[in-house]
Design goal:
With 323 residues, the chain is of the alpha/beta class. It has a domain at 7-173 and 209-236 and 279-294: Rossmann fold (3-Layer(aba) Sandwich). It is 42% helix and 19% strand. The protein is built from eleven helices and 14 strands. The protein has a seven-stranded parallel sheet with strand order 3-2-1-4-5-7-11, sandwiched between helices. The chain is globular.
């Protein structure tokens, strides 16, 4: 039996995950429409999800909306907290209203940050969530995501098909290190002889997943049958402390760089509440989606480094040509 093809809108189409998701969807034969505030290779519409009329005009009748539009990266969140919060909340509210009118499915990309500090436990989709996520402006991101989840659940309770993915530390080649993500920052700094900035003692534990794994899991959640109302963790296979990650980057790349312990304010330009342990259980993704992460951490590091090296070679070639 052929796989049913869908009309699909992707918000946040110019983003790190959005770009990969559209590539996967198009490879399967689905018709996609990309929407974002900034241009990109798969962005067909330049619009803001907070603009209800602009958004509603492009929600496909009976189709699917993958809702990825968000302010991303701690550096950007601290600079634009009000925009961060309103993008999640107002954008998702607008989308739910439009999807209800047009009978469209919503697949919302939330974040592991809704779980808060983690407290050393494996985080399941049924784990209790904190009422508060630390001080503003940093809390604008998890609190916006949490409120948006509530809107999607309300949409589902009213008869709509709403689904939620909670991403854990999506990373890999092509991610912009300047916005604050730890792995590409470490790789970039290591390659350029810059000390790797580890916050505090570096004991916070994370689990990293390749962007292709994240996009593949999200696609399965969005296209699968019988998944309305589900909330599913999507994460990686390897857990590591931030300090261990720094040493691992240097070792894998065979570089003799240094590690510098810094404060969150030094690192990001503002305070950030620490999260000690953010590791997911992935049983629900395996059971309901048949999805497991495929790319190990070492390969993510090496692929990220290879991308930075190619970019450096291109920039060097451009400078030589200009000279």
């Amino acid at each position: 039996m052929p796989i049913p093809l869908h009309e699909i809108l992707v918000t946040g189409a110019s983003g790190f995950v959005g770009t990969r998701l559209i590539q996967l969807l198009q490879a399967k034969g689905h018709r996609t429409l990309g929407l974002d505030l900034v241009p990109g290779p798969y962005t067909d519409i330049i619009a803001d999800v907070r603009d209800r009329k602009a958004l509603e005009a492009h929600v496909p009748e009976g189709g699917i909306v993958f809702h990825l539009a968000s302010v991303v990266g701690i550096v950007e969140v601290l600079k634009r907290p009000e925009e961060c919060y309103s993008c999640s909340v107002e954008g998702t509210r607008n989308l739910c209203r439009s999807a209800e009118k047009r009978g469209a499915r919503i697949v919302f990309t939330s974040s592991s940050e809704v779980y808060g500090d983690g407290a050393g436990e494996l985080l399941s989709e049924d784990s209790s969530l904190p009422a508060h996520h630390g001080p503003w402006p940093r809390a604008s991101y998890p609190e916006g995501k949490l409120r948006a989840e509530e809107l999607v659940r309300t949409f589902h309770a009213r008869g709509g098909d709403g689904r939620i993915a909670r991403f854990f530390n999506v990373t890999g080649p092509g991610q912009e290190w300047r916005k604050g993500p730890v792995l590409p920052t470490f790789v970039h700094h290591a390659l350029h002889g810059i000390p790797l900035p580890v916050i505090g003692e570096g004991g916070d534990v994370r689990c990293f997943q390749h962007v292709d794994d994240a996009a593949a899991g999200l696609m399965k959640l969005g296209l699968g049958d019988g998944l309305a109302g589900q909330t599913i963790n999507l994460g990686g296979m390897d857990s590591v402390s931030v300090e261990q990650l720094a040493h691992r980057v240097l070792s894998l790349l065979n570089l003799s760089g240094t590690i510098k312990n810094v404060s969150a304010t030094d690192r990001y330009g503002g305070p950030s509440r620490p999260c000690t342990h953010r590791i997911p259980t992935l049983e629900r993704a395996k059971e309901l989606l048949g999805h497991e992460p495929r790319v190990p951490l070492d390969k993510i590091i090496l692929e990220t480094a290879a991308t930075f090296r190619r970019e450096d070679e291109t920039e060097s070639g451009d400078r030589f040509a200009e000279a």
